[in-house]
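Researcher: Go.
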Amino acid sequence: MKEVKFLSAVLIVILMMLYLDTREDKVSESDTEITIAETNTSDITGLRLVTRTQTISMALKKDADGDQYPWFRIESKSSTRAFVANDKTEKLVAKYARLQAIRSLGKDFSPQEITKLKLQSPMRRLVIQQTSENKIFELGGRTHGARDHYIRAKDGSEVFLIAKKTIADLESPESRLMQRKVMSAKLEDVSSAIITDKNKTIEILRKNRLSKKDAFWASKQEPEQRDETLGNYMSKLLSVTARKYGIREKPLESESLLLRLKLLNESEDVIDEFEISRGATKRPSYLIRSKATRQMAEIRRTLGEQLEQDLSSVLNL
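Model: Structure:
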């Protein structure tokens, strides 16, 4: 019995020591984080990640109003894809404006050690494009477990370790950074909407707009009567998301306009608008352009078909 108590006490001490060691490791890791590149976000004009199979780049483009927006391009031997980026890109640029490493691993490495770190002939390269001189880094292998990256400046000797999350967004920008939201206005700010096709126009009202539970769509003829047809149609229309964009040299083209939507506030100012068209392709497709997407983007075909089929019943109410 005494032996059991003794072993239990020893086990508790060991567990406490392990816990304290873990805490100290975490604190020391965060304390040793260092900045390996720093510049103003306004000086960054683009980012580029070059790997064995593809090149991922982010650049700044201008829309018709002269406003800048981020644009991603993914090039491989078999395809080229591109898309408008969302507002998360601002955090991405800020991250690379102050590029931080978990720690420095030093400068004195033998050729064998450099080979082991996969920095002898690195197949990956990170480029921070600036208004002045670009900053170029070579990416080596990755650590086991945490999958952090070994990195050093081009022509530099000091090797650093940077966190997996630092590169993750740039490695998979389509799933993380594509502008998929079509609507930029807040629904609670919308008091009415105007739907137009080639021949007809209808204005509808959003009542009780400040209440998610009680808000509903109604016709101008019966402003206090919930209209399920209008409600279902607007629910589908406002759920549209962008799935695919064109590429810079060949943007997606529309064949014919299906509808235009304008969203108005209480003062009857247009606070958002977009248009849906049929795509100019052999395969049936539907495209959307809004303030958020800035250019034509493809939407889900089945949803586009539903919107087209139900449009006449809405406009004839």
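Model: The chain is about 25% helix and 35% strand.
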